[in-house]
Amino acid sequence: MLTAREVAKWFIYNNPELASGYIDENTKVNKLLYFSNLMYVCVVKESLISDEFVAFPNGPVVYSVYRDYRYHGLNTLPSQGPSIEGVPRKILEIINFVYGNYTAQELIDESHTHDLWKSVKHLIPNNPVINFDNIDQNLISYYQSLFSTYSEFDFSKISKEKISGNIYYFYKDSFEMTDEIVEKLSKFDRFEEPKFLEIIDGELVIS
After folding, report:
1. Domain coverage including residue 87
2. Which of 95, 109, 143, 203 would disulfide-bridge 42, Cβ 3.0–4.6 Å?
3. What is the model's pTM?
């Protein structure tokens, strides 16, 4: 198993906007930890993270990560990310790809739909422990399906750009983000979801 601090550093390294943050970024790091552990339990049948998760009003949290991010420098950008490989790395990549662009509030709202949190929320503020042995079967099926969809996907070939508040993904080796494309993309209103960029027959395609 990995420590929550290791996984938090991985997410901060791969999402520099999470460094030097405050409440929202702290919340987002903790939710990414929660969703990662949840998917790992659904897929591998054991915990990815050795630390306990407790129920806060804003959803599941690893208290030591919450504390260290806020008070002890965990919110600094690491010079290099932790070495995490195999299925653990793949699950972190999937969670980062699926949830990395969510706002803190969106992640809170998502975690609040889970019985894992709802079943103990009445015990807040006594920091009740989240029990990952009691995952709803629908949630298990969802995360198993998500893992199956992305398990063979090579995330190292994908780049991400944020332009005028919108997130765009594209393949590094087949797409060049030119000044002309940036200018065109900067004129769009906000999208609800990230978009994928391609050049097909010489034309920019946004999907």
Report:
1. 4-151
2. 143
3. 0.88
